[in-house]
Automatic annotation (TrEMBL):
Primary location: membrane
Protein encoded by which gene: LOC114669199
GO function terms (MF aspect): heme binding; iron ion binding; oxidoreductase activity, acting on paired donors, with incorporation or reduction of molecular oxygen, reduced flavin or flavoprotein as one donor, and incorporation of one atom of oxygen
Residues engaged in binding heme: 484
Name of this protein: Cytochrome P450 2M1-like
Coiled coil feature spans: none
Lineage: Eukaryota, Metazoa, Chordata, Craniata, Vertebrata
PROSITE patterns: CYTOCHROME_P450 (PS00086)
């Protein structure tokens, strides 16, 4: 067996590797289990004959080594990386509370493409802007698969935009992009829906005038209501019990992902499914949320006009009706509810965290806050509601908002990809379905691409004349075919919410500026703003 494996390994391409691996693995497992069962049945493993026992142990050890060798054939052309341990791989070498930092450190030793083992599964990490660009853009088709990690599989069932692959992903993503881009449907655009919510957010902040408060849930309310307006065609009161359940469920889901328990579920899902813990409640609450979405869809379906949809659900339902005669359609109720779930899970915590980080940075740097307000006063004034057209005349504000996102580095490792076929990349061979981790943080902190990487510096996005300067390494929303579906919506929310708040208020901290920590907290999911208290002062 060993000689055959070696002969297949020599002078051949990837396909013989895979065939040899599958053959050797199958033979080894079959022999190990058959021999073990037979010996136990015959009670030979318990004979006192030490020479025979030694023979059996030696044979089992040989078969185990052969299995390990056959495994190495499959991964022999993967990029280099730290040596893994049996069963746990490199998990003991990674900080599971902040894996992105571990990957950045490993890239200093192994280069911009390296392999780590997450348990028994290899994952290829891509670091640096040029490497990410080569993979996700130049070879975007090959790297367009999504690794459906167990938490995502459990919550999305293989449907929606984030948690799907193949035709399901292609069709639903294309539809969602078109629908959001052309959201002139009904009577109001997305921009108008956000502008409406800015008024409610201003009122909520005004109620906190002269009071010390944490803005987390007020901001989360506003961002979630934008998604509700887009998805359901209506907003909710900040005190509505269904709306509060929405927020609590999404917050609980992200807290679970941010803790080591969420990582353990992704690595050992079968074991975790049999154990008690917070994951049980998280998944139960997500099912209740899906039931709410299902009921809303039923209600909207009864009164909708398929030719004039007023929200995302109605547009999706109209597409279901349009394709009901197509047996291969990817548009059905399961796809609808999971697509809506994706919009809430991907579009609430991320944007609201960015807004909270923006407020924190404004308090830390009063001179920057004042300069943004001067630009708002000049371009917009004190009474007119900000609109997206204003942004082109506000280069400093635009630069500050971009730098907030770069500095925050919200999702340092993005969502893992897979290669959809055997892929040659930078001299290595990535077998089909290999997990790929895009280390977006490496682009946002690439010293060759930025003036300053470690400190907050709006000049990273300004030229010598003070005009806004685009930077290709700004990969906050990832890159290529799997780039964030809601990028344009998120950009719109961040600009309109921040400018409308700074138009009316000045933010201050109860702490001395030197004690105000703006560095985001690292967690397994990403980098979140630190909890803080604040005051708002009404501008005259």
């Amino acid at each position: 067996m060993l000689e055959l494996a070696v002969s297949c390994h020599q002078g051949c391409g990837h396909s013989p590797f895979i065939r040899t691996y599958m053959w050797a693995e199958s033979c080894c497992e079959s022999l190990v289990y058959t021999l073990s069962d037979s010996l136990v049945e015959m009670e030979l493993l318990f004979l006192p004959d030490t020479s025979f026992s030694s023979f059996v142990i030696g044979l089992l050890a040989f078969l185990l080594l052969l299995k390990i060798f056959s495994q190495s054939l499959k991964t022999s052309r993967l990029p280099p990386g730290p040596a893994p341990l049996p069963l746990v791989g490199n998990l003991l070498q990674l900080d599971m509370k902040k894996p992105s930092m571990s990957y950045l450190e490993l890239s200093k030793t192994y280069g911009s493409v390296f392999t780590v083992w997450l348990g028994s599964k290899p994952a290829v990490v891509l670091s640096s802007y040029s490497t990410l660009k080569d993979a996700l853009l130049t070879q975007g088709e090959e790297f367009s698969g999504r690794y459906i990690y167990p938490v995502l599989q459990k919550s999305n069932e293989g449907y929606g935009v984030v948690g799907s692959n193949g035709e399901q992903w292609k069709q639903v993503r294309r539809f969602s992009l078109t629908t959001l881009k052309n959201f002139g449907m009904g009577r109001r655009s997305i921009e108008e829906r956000i502008q409406e919510e800015t008024n409610f957010l201003q009122e909520a902040f005004l109620e906190k005038k002269d009071l010390l408060f944490n803005p987390k849930f007020i901001v989360l309310n506003a961002v979630a209501n934008v998604i509700c307006s887009v998805v359901f065609g209506r907003r909710f009161s900040y005190q509505d019990k269904d709306f509060l359940f929405f927020l609590k469920t999404i917050d609980g889901y992200f807290n679970f992902l941010s803790r080591p328990t969420g990582q353990l579920y992704n690595i050992f899902p079968k074991i975790m499914n049999h154990l008690p813990g917070e994951h049980k409640k998280v998944f139960a609450d997500l099912e209740k949320l899906k039931m709410f979405i299902r009921n809303e869809a039923t209600s909207l379906k009864a009164k909708m006009n398929p030719d004039d949809p007023n929200n995302f659900i109605e547009a999706f339902l109209a597409q279901i009706l349009k394709e009901k005669a197509n047996p291969q359609t990817e548009f059905h109720e399961l796809s609808l509810e999971n697509s809506v779930m994706n919009m809430f899970s991907a579009g609430t915590e991320t944007v609201s965290s960015t807004l909270r980080q923006a407020i924190l940075i404004m308090m830390k740097f009063p001179h920057i806050q004042e300069k943004v307000q001067e630009e708002i006063d000049t371009v917009i004034g004190s009474h007119r509601t900000p609109c997206m057209q204003d942004k082109q005349n506000m280069p400093y504000t635009d630069a500050v908002l971009h730098e907030i996102q770069r500095f925050m580095d919200l999702a340092p490792i993005g969502i893992p990809h897979t290669v959809i076929k055997d892929t040659e990349f930078k001299g290595y061979l990535l077998p089909k379905d290999t997990v790929v981790i895009p280390l977006l943080s490496s682009a946002l902190s690439d010293p060759t691409m930025w003036k300053t990487t470690d400190s907050f510096c709006p000049e990273n996005f300004l030229d010598e004349n003070g005009a806004f300067k685009k930077n290709d390494a700004f990969l906050v929303f990832s890159l290529g075919k799997r780039a964030c579906l809601g990028e344009s919506l998120a950009r719109m929310e961040i600009f309109l919410f921040i400018t409308s708040l700074l138009q009316k208020f000045t933010f201050t901290s109860p702490l001395p500026l030197l004690e105000l920590d703006i560095s985001p907290e690292l967690c397994s999911f990403g980098r979140m703003p630190r909890p803080y208290q604040m005051y708002v002062k009404v501008r005259v």
